[in-house]
Amino acid sequence: MRITLRQLEIFCSVASAGSTVAASQALSLSQSATSAAVLELERLMGVALFDRVGKMLRPNAEGRALLPRAAALVADAQAIEQQSDEVGLRLAASNTTGNYVLPGLLARHAAKVRRTDPTRPPVASHVRVVNTTEVAKAVARLECDVGFIEGPCHEAQLDVLPWIEDELLIVAARDHPLARAAPAAEDRSVRVGKAALRQVAWLMREPGSGTRESVEHALAPHLGVVRASVEFGTPEAIKRAAAAGLGIACLSRWTVQDLVVRGGLVVLKPPWPTMRRPFSIVLHARQRSPAVKRFVDFCIADAASAKVGT
Fold first, then answer.
1. Do 68 and 206 belong together in one domain?
2. pLDDT digits (tens, 9 = 90+) for 211-262
3. pLDDT digits (tens, 9 = 90+) for 145-162
4. Cys-Cys with 168: which of 69, 219, 275, 303 at CB 3.0–4.6 Å?
5. How many CB atoms lie within 10 A of CB 303?
6. HSE on the CB side for 209, CA within 13 Å?
7. SS3 label, residue 65
8. pTM value?
């Protein structure tokens, strides 16, 4: 098929506006490009579509016959484009990002959408919360459109985009021996040494977790291999176990901040610099739909806005 939707859209605009000049302004095109599109459409159809009346262009008999069919095709194409705006995305998120970061992000995105178009549905139709390894696999298999991870990505076919920065905190119950070793500072923290940290029970995530991999990578230069006394499948379970006195844990500030503020957990400050890690967005190399691009652009802009505001 040689006739294009763009040619039909320009034809409809010229028929409505009465001139190529007015149509070009409505379509944000040059007048020469608008005229060329009409001439090419007439050439492909083998007939003239307009009569000139003074400075105005009026559809002739062939143009009037074409106009309703062309308008219907253009309207259908616009409806298809609108459908791509309204499609619900399938998201996958690691436990920390899915439980503590993504809900607020989706709420801010929904608020932005409502300000511009109250009829638009939520961007996400489904959110899967699993560990980092499973998030990457789901995106690699095209089971999910966008992934949010908190550890390294080991799927070669995925693109990894920097998103936000996280801080890892070592925490213990307020009546834990390490927490009682020195008075807590105003920020509810206690300084501890390497020897003490080597001798206590550690609570860890399961293998495959981004937090587990990040924690092992952060602690290894200072403590060597840290072995878990108990492994849990979620950061929330580790946090609660640490608050109950089962052991100490190294978790995201996002995860533990509420119990630290309430006094249920005390931050143990080790003799090395603050431990930080990146949270990332992962996309399949072939996944670049307009809806995905718009949502990812919002996520990046939202992160930049939060960083500026801190």
1. no
2. 888 899 999 999 998 889 999 999 999 999 999 999 999 999 999 999 999 9
3. 999 999 888 898 899 999
4. 275
5. 18
6. 21
7. helix
8. 0.68
